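Hi Y.,

Following your request, here is the sequence exactly as I used it, all 569 residues.
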Amino acid sequence: MPLLRRRPRIQLYTPRVVVAGQPFVARVVLHCREEVPLEFVDVELRGALDRFRERENGTEERVVEFLRQRARVREAGPLPIGEHSWSVTFRLPAGAPVSYSGGSYRISYTYHVHASVPWWPDARATFVAHVESAPAETASPPATSVFASGPTQGESPDFELSLGTTVVGPGEPLRGAIALADPQRHAYREATLALVALESADGFLGRTSHRHEVCRWTLPADRLRETEPLAFTLQLPEGVVAGFDHGGVALAWYLHAKVDVPWSRDPEVWIPLTVVGRREPALQGEQAPPAVGTRRVEALWRDVAARSGLAWEPGAMHGAVAGAALRISREHVDGRGAVAVARLTTPDLGLGLALTGAPPKLVGRDMSQTTCLNQHVSELLRRCPPRAADDRGLVFEVDEPGRDAAALRRFVEDVKAVAAALAAAREVMPAPTAMAAAVPAWERAAGQLGGRLQRASMAVTAAVDGVAIAVRTDWDARGRPRRTLFEARPGVPIDRRHHLVWRAEDGSPPATELPLAPLWPGAGEIVVDAGSVRVAVDGPLADPLEQLDRITALTVVGKHIEGRRGHYR
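Below is the corresponding structure, written out as C-alpha cells. Let me know if you'd prefer a different format.
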C-alpha cells in the first residue's frame, strides 16, 4: 500500500430545480484512482437561514440550519479502483421555503457528500441545491376589487388602482389602471409602483418583519393628469419566488402604489399579491383590470340602476315609483366630496309638509294628518332621513357609496320604500280637522263634476267639457283655511296679451278679450298667466256646488281659449 493515499473524487447529479413536497433522486459518484478503504459515504441535504442585520461596525450575520436530511449510501469496506455510484431519494417537506435572497435574510439549500477515510483526511464536497415552488397549473383568476388610497368622500388627494389579477408568476406581465381623484384641484406629480417583499422571521422577542423593495416602475405626471384613467403593464422580474410561511420564516409580496403630491399627504395603497410558481406560456394570459375612476362609478351606478328597475343616463338613474318620479344623481359638495342625492317628486300632497327637529321629522299643518303620515313613514325616515321636504316631494342625501354597490342599492331601495309609503298614506289621509264636516259635500261635488277629491288639502280635480278644472282650499301658515281657488288649465298656452293680475282692492276689472264677466262678482283675485286662469274667493267652501255657476263660467273661459283660431290651433 502506498504511503500517501489518494482520496476519491466526488461528483453529484441532481435535478436542476427541486420542488418542495415532491420526491427527487440524487446520484453520488466517487472516482477512485486506487483502492481506498472507507468507513461510510453519506449524502446530506441541508437548509439554512442566514439572517443579517446592519450594525454600526458593519453587517451582522447569523446562520441557523432549519433542515437536515441525511442518507448513508455506502457502509464500511474497501472501494476498488474505478467509478462507483449510489442513488438516494429525498423529499423536502411540503410548504418548505424556496431558495431566496432578500434584504434581511437568505434561504439556501446545499448537498453535502462525506466519504470517511480511516486514518486520513476525509473526502468532502458541497453542492448548491435550487428549490422552487411547484409550477402553477392554472391561469390567474381575474381580479374584481378596486384599491383606493382613501375614502371616496372628502377633498384630499386620492386615487384608485385596479389590477387584472393579484396572482402572478415570475416574468409575467401584470396589467393595471390608475385614476386620480379631482386632478383639476390637486397638482399630482408622478406615481411610483414598487414590488415589495415583506420578509418575516421568528426571533427571541417574537416575529420581526422587514420590507425589501425588489423593483420599481414610474408613471409620468403628464399622463396621470389626464381625465381618463391611465392603463399600464408591469413586467415582473424573473427572480421572484412564491411566498411561504414555514419553519419560523415567511415571505409575502405587495405592490406599493404611491402618488407624489406637493405640500400634501402622498396618497398610497398596499396591494397584496400572490406569487406562484412558473407557468407554461399558454397559462400566462393577461387579464384586463376592472374599471377605475369615473368609468368604475358609471359602471357601478348603471348596474345598480338595472337591479333597482330604474333607467340610467350619464350621471343619474331615474324612474317612476308608486306614482312619484325618482331621480338619483351623483353630485359634488364642498368639504364632503361626492354625494348621492335622491329627489323624490310626488303629486301635490297638500299637507303643508315641512321638516323639523333633529333628527328631522315630517310635520304638516294638521295634527291628525301628521300622525297618519308618520305612522306610514317614520320608521323608513329614521333609516333614511331626508334633507328637505315639502308637498311636492323629498330630497335625500348620503355620502356617495363609491365602491360599495350594496350600499348604493340599499339607499335606492330605502328611497323607493319611502315613495311607496307616501302613496299608501295619501290613500288613507284624513281631511284637515277644520274642514272634516265638509267632506261629504265635497265628495258629492267631486262625483257630480266627474272628478276626484283629495282630502288632505280639500281639493277637487276634474275635467269639465274637456277642460281641466280644480277647486282647492288655500291654507295659511297656521293651518287655517284662508280662501278657495278655482282654476282652469286649457290644453294650449294662453297668449301673453291675455295675461293679467287683478285684486278686489284694485277697483274696476280691466278690459280683456276673455269672457271673464261672470267671474268678477265675489272674487278677491283673478290671475291669468301662460298656463291657467285662477279665481280666488275669500274663505273656505262648505259645498263647492254652491259655486257651480263660477265653475261653469271658468269652463267657458277655458273652452274659449282652446277654440280661438290662429295662435291656439
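Residues 9-132 form a domain with the Immunoglobulin-like fold (CATH 2.60.40.640).

Thanks again,
Q.
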